[in-house]
Amino acid sequence: xxxxxxxxxxxxxxxxxxxxxxxxxxxxxxxxxxxxxxxxxxxxxxxxxxxxxxxxxxxxxxxxxxxxxxxxxxxxxxxxxxxxxxxxxxxxxxxxxxxxxxxxxxxxxxxxxxxxxxxxxxxxxxxxxxxxxxxxxxxxxxxxxxxxxxxxxxxxxxxxxxxxxxxxxxxxxxxxxxxxxxxxxxxxxxxxxxxxxxxxxxxxxxxxxxxxxxxxxxxxxxxxxxxxxxxxxxxxxxxxxxxxxx
Length: 246
What we know:
Radius of gyration: 21 Å
Mean pLDDT: 80
Shape: globular
Helix content: 10-25%
C-alpha cells in the first residue's frame, strides 16, 4: 500500500518552466523539474537478473552506457527537463532513469522526443526518435544517435544482439551468453531519404549524389578522413552550405 501511494504521488508531480532546447545548449538543472507521469513505470533492472542463473554467465552488455550518466529529456515541444541519472538499453530500445538514488524507471516513448547524455568533460550525446526507415529494423519509436541534424542528417543506430551459449566451459562448467554491440550509420541521400551508409569516402559521396567533385576537393583541402565521425560532420556542414547557396 505504501509503495502504491508513493508511486501515485510521484505520478502527479508538478512540472515548472521548461525552456527550448538547442543542440549545443547546456541547461541549468536548477531551472526545471521533470514531469513524471504514470507512463514512467518502474523498471526491472539488469542487475537484478544478471548472473541470476548459477549455471550460466553473461559477457557484454545490453546497454549503450553500462554505468549511469547524467542526462536530460527532450519533450515533444522541444523543451527540456532537469538532469537525471540515465542509461540506454539498446537491446530493448529503452531509456532507464532514476528520479531518486534508489528507484529506477523506464521513460515512456509517448512523452519524450529524445534525450541527451552529458558525460563529464565530454561532448553531449543526443538521441532522438521519429525516424521510420524502410527496409530496416528502425521504426518511429527507435532512438537514434544524432551526429548531424541539418538539411542533411547523419544518424547512428546502436543495437545489441543476444546470443545464447550452448557449450559448457571446461573449467567452470557454465554456459556463456553474449551481448554483441552493432553500429549502423544512416545518411540523407540526394532524394532526401535516409539510407544506410558506410563511413567510407566512396560510399558517402555516392549517397550524397551531388557536387561530388567539389566535395572531393573540400575533403583533400581539409585532409578529412571519412572513417572519422567528426570529419563526416565537417563534410556535411559544407555540403549543406553549398545547397543553401545554390
